[in-house]
């Protein structure tokens, strides 16, 4: 009866965790769709602006036809300023804000996880003939240079979006590790090992069964730098542990892949507590 009760509680905890995860994914999807709508509107306005510039450029001084593909420097500058202002309005909805400076624009990328505000990072860009990064507060382990090389000159919106994904995923992984240490320090054996990017976590934790404590070892690898959930999880117990604990280790491994780390710990910790 005890094991049946445990399985029932684990099933309920699993179902609740899955429902919570689905709700969060729906909210994130809605936010992305709203941002996409704004982005499409901006692209429409940019196309209209390009058409206007080409039409104005067809007549030069004294009615001389000029090259429509080569608008004046002033017209290009005005178009850039208009585009940047519209872009700032778009990204405000996605946690990215900014303001125009004398030499370009300064962006602030705010990170959050599960509705909790975490950190902000600043990026100061020079918008002359070639867009350049003047200064920033992005951590050195975020591949800023690679992202800039790929998107900065051709698609600044994409550049900011990808950079924001990297920063939010890193902040989410770090937040989960911190929550695990703060909330479940009594369950963790030794120190939770993590690298600077928090894309590799290794830790030992205890599992209680029939008034006995068994050590488990977990290794979480986050192969996608833009994701806050692991792509590879290995949970193991000692060879002499009961067969039921080996099954539990497999269940924990599956849960770590789908649910935030501290949420997973909270769900199976409550079920274990009801049996002890």
Automatic annotation (TrEMBL):
Keywords: Centromere, Chromosome, Coiled coil, Nucleus. Residues 6-57 form a coiled coil. It is found in: Chromosome, Centromere; Nucleus. GO terms for cellular component: Mis6-Sim4 complex; nucleus. InterPro entries: CENP-O. Belongs to the CENP-O/MCM21 family. This is Centromere protein O. It comes from Pygoscelis papua. The lineage of its organism: Eukaryota, Metazoa, Chordata, Craniata, Vertebrata.
């Amino acid at each position: 009866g005890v094991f049946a009760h445990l399985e029932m509680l684990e099933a309920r905890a699993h179902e609740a965790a899955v429902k919570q995860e689905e709700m969060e994914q729906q909210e994130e999807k809605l936010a992305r769709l709203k941002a996409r709508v704004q982005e499409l509107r901006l692209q429409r306005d940019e196309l209209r602006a390009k058409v206007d510039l080409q039409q104005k450029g067809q007549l030069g001084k004294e009615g001389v036809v000029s090259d429509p593909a080569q608008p004046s420097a002033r017209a290009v500058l005005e178009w850039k300023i208009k585009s940047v202002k519209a872009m700032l309005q778009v990204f405000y909805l996605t946690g990215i804000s900014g303001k125009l400076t004398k030499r370009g624009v300064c962006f602030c990328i705010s990170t959050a996880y599960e509705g909790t505000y975490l950190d902000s990072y600043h990026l100061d860009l020079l918008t002359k003939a070639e867009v350049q990064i003047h200064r920033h507060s992005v951590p050195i382990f975020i591949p800023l240079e690679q992202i800039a090389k790929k998107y900065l000159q051709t698609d600044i919106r994409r550049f900011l979006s990808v950079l924001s994904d990297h920063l939010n995923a890193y902040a989410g992984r770090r937040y989960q590790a911190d929550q695990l240490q703060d909330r479940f320090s009594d369950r963790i054996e030794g120190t939770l090992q993590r690298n600077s990017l928090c894309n590799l976590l290794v830790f030992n934790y205890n599992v209680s069964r029939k008034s006995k404590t068994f050590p488990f070892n977990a290794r979480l690898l986050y192969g996608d730098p833009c994701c806050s959930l692991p792509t590879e999880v290995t949970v193991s117990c000692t060879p002499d542990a009961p067969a039921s604990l080996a099954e539990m280790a497999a269940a924990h491994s599956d849960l770590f892949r789908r649910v935030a780390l501290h949420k997973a710990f909270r769900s199976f910790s409550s079920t274990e507590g009801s049996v002890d």
